[in-house]
Amino acid sequence: MTKVKSLADLKKMKDQFQSKIELREKGEDPDSRVQIKVAMATCGIASGAKTVMEFLIEELDKRSIDAVVTQTGCMGYCYAEPTIEVKLPNQEPVVFGYVNNQKADEIIEKYIKNGELVDGIIPMNYNTIDNQ
Q1: Bond before 82 cis per omega within 30 degrees
Q2: What are the sequence ranges of the domains in the chain?
Q3: S-S: 74 plus which of 41, 45, 46, 60, CB 3.0-4.6 Å?
Q4: Are 81 and 47 in contact (CB under 8 A)?
Q5: What is the tens place of the pLDDT at every residue in 84-118?
Q6: How far apart are CA 60 and CA 108, in angstroms?
Q7: How far apart are CA 74 and CA 81, in angstroms?
Q8: Which CATH architecture has domain 34-127?
Q9: What are phi and psi of 31, to 5 degrees?
Q10: What's the CA gap between 66 and 35, in Å, rounded?
Q11: Structure pTM?
């Protein structure tokens, strides 16, 4: 464990532990919340997924949107990184590609808050293609 050398160190540790506790508590009933998965494989990280994830966490909190943001591995859309999967309560997940902070803001404002679809959705054809 890190040594506490100042009040700022103690506050930083408190914030880190508090965020872990909140994530664990939100994880108990994920279907009642907005769930966002950020693809954080090598291609996603190289394309800016870490910045997008940090933006989403900060902005959802600022806007008091009850959401769980987690990272995942490769979703198979390397050509469209950074990619995120957004699942609204009682709906099927939607995958968005080429997500930067501006696109993430649009997804929050239009899709998450109002249910409006926005550009950048990656179709998930494998669920509808008839296997012959």
Answers
A1: yes
A2: 34-127
A3: 41
A4: yes
A5: 999 999 899 999 999 999 999 999 999 999 999 99
A6: 8
A7: 10
A8: 3-Layer(aba) Sandwich (3.40)
A9: -70, -15
A10: 9
A11: 0.74
Q: What is the pLDDT of residues 60-87, one digit of tens each?
A: 989 999 999 999 999 999 999 999 999 9
Q: Which two tokens stand for residue 14?
A: 């408190």
CA angle 83, 89, 95 (to 5 degrees): 15
| One-letter identity of residue 59 | E
User: What is the b/e burial string over 83-119, where b = at least 16 CB atoms within 10 angstroms of the residue's CB?
Assistant: bbbbbeeeeeebbbbebeeebbebbbeebbeeeeeee
Q: How many CB atoms lie within 10 A of CB 47?
A: 19
d(CA 82, CA 93): 16
